[in-house]
Queue: 2 jobs
Job 1
Amino acid sequence: MESGSLRIDELSPEERKIYNTLKPEQLPQHVAIIMDGNGRWAGQRSLKRFLGHQQGAKSVQLVTETASRIGLPWLTLYAFSLENNLRRPRAEVNFLMRLLKSYLESNLQRMMDNNVRIRYIGRTRDLPPEVQDKMRWAEDATARNTGTTLTLALNYGGRSEIVDAFRSLAREIEAKHLKADRITEEDVHRHLYTAHMPDPDLLIRTSGEMRISNFLPWQIAYTEIFVTERFWPDFRGQHLLEAIAAFQCRERRYGGIGEGSGEVEENVDQIRIATS
Ligand code: FPP
């Protein structure tokens, strides 16, 4: 199966209803998601937080499968931040690590069946060795799949990614005796963890918070942002499709001017500027 191939017949009836309203030629290439609200989902049900994470892992699987059915090439999920690692109770961090290992183990076959390739971004070398082993195992096993690339951001921080990129770029400059004032945006891009993928077209955040939380700060410069009140454990493929539908109603201008935004004045040099 080739990248971007469609398996629309495998969508649920609710998903298909929304999918049928989408413009196929304007599907995003890359969707990134800040998965938030696992703890609040559990709290609302008087459950322990870990049950929210466990249910959140189910959402990861289901949303990834929907992404693969609609031929989304890139899906990037913020699964564990550097700050989560430093600031959460050790017991919760340990649980998240065990959950990740178990997720990879028990979902490998489903990833294969859905032609999903798994990769990671972040300071993954600082994760426990047995977690890194399992991550490598899943990455190697799915490396030849050509459908959706699911990238998990693990022990990820956007500013530390930029620091890592600068360190690596500085080494290149030194080795090749390059001039610092020749550095371009493209050079920075080449040294980011995400050098191999396009920037996200759409960033989704669940649970209502209006923050970026240090997720892909360089890459989302022109990304459309969609925030939903829904907690991540309740987020499903149909909600991904709803976000894509909203995205398709946006006009992306990249700093240019859009339709209906006023007439362009050709003789601006003659216009008196009023500042008060
Ligand atoms: C935010 O919820 C979510 C996380 C800190 C981690 C995301 C983890 C998962 C979705 C589960 C495991 C993922 C994989 C890939 C197996 P929160 O705890 O910050 O929620 P709260 O803000 O309501 O407390």
Job 2
Amino acid sequence: MPDPSPRRALITGITGQDGSYLAELLLEKGYEVWGMIRRSSSFNTGRIDHLYQDPHEPGRRLKLVYGDLTDTPSIHKALAESQPHEVYNLGAQSHVKVSFETPEYTTDVVGIGVVRLLSVIRELGLDCRFYQASSSEMYGRVVESPQSETTPFWPRSPYAAAKAFAFYVTRNVREAYGLFAVNGILFNHESPRRGETFVTRKISRAAARISRGKQERLYLGNLDAARDWGFAGDYVDAMWRMLQVEEPDDYVIATGETCTVREFCDVCFTEAGLPLTWQGEGLTERGVDAQGRVLVEVDPNYFRPTEVDRLCGDASKAKQLLGWEPKVYAPELARMMTQADMQSL
Ligand code: NDP
Ligand code: GDR
């Protein structure tokens, strides 16, 4: 049975990048943190191992339960056991390119998963606040810039379409039943804990490995794609703030600054001691070091059937109503990630 005294939070996706930072933040604030984890054939708790507490230890405040967003009984069990005051739904098949290859599964986890969670919360009559991890990918094809809470959505992938569905389901539950349910529309956020197949980490890791002679070349897709990249540690604080205010609402979280994949490469490779010059264009564009070695090349296999060209967020509502502001911007983030990858070698 849960300890009745501290505030309790349930995090889906606790083993992911954001889940690990959020768990740290909530534990620091004195919460009892329950995390839903998936059974895996190999260890998948690397990002939270440093927070793990032996189940036999009295007074432990991190509790893990097996579950899956495609499996209603496990969601029911996790919510009934934890009796949370706050639920953070971060679980997702979160890779945009992969969502084109697994559209049905992605829709099930990202879209229907939210319906399952909210239905069980209502069924159990839980008096809790609900955070939905919405995404800037919902803006997709740019109709105005910067994007704010009032910018129309134009999803450009199965992932983005499922996130848009989940966004409206969350908003509808708030309007229909008065549940404290909010959408954080978070723009890209990264960290040394970012999954290795997302572009920023792929770059920082390759820059570190190439500088140590462990890799020869980095192959990338669209170098012109531009994103508003912030730091995950800053962004989980915004999630928490959204559940502490009086009225539930939806908020954009972003830095307001945008750079291209090419520019992110420039900072990482310079930090690794391998400043690049760019030669050629289109499919033959390549990043070359001072010795003339080709370190970065374009591989069209990484192109997406429909691309999101450029995103830039306007987080002024969050600044005004939540008192939230980013502390880390893309160049510092790129240096931080490259340093961390160099140290881990
Ligand atoms: P990650 O991909 O790092 O983590 C995803 C988490 O979801 C992992 O814990 C994963 O478990 C879990 N998960 C995957 N499938 C399921 C499932 N079927 N049932 C339950 N859990 C599942 O994502 P991030 O931490 O980067 O992102 C967190 C959330 O925020 C996601 O919903 C993402 O879509 C959203 N988001 C992310 C942004 C970003 O820039 N990072 C921006 C905007 C939104 P496992 O470890 O076992 O794979
Ligand atoms: P994104 O992140 O799709 O914005 O989704 P990702 O890092 O995968 O791509 C960003 C941009 O870089 C281009 N790109 C490449 N991307 C990857 N992964 N690998 C490459 O080799 C490569 N080369 C160029 C992409 O085409 C794209 O334009 C992330 C995820 O965390 C989502 O879950 C989240 O919702 C959004 O951010 C906001």
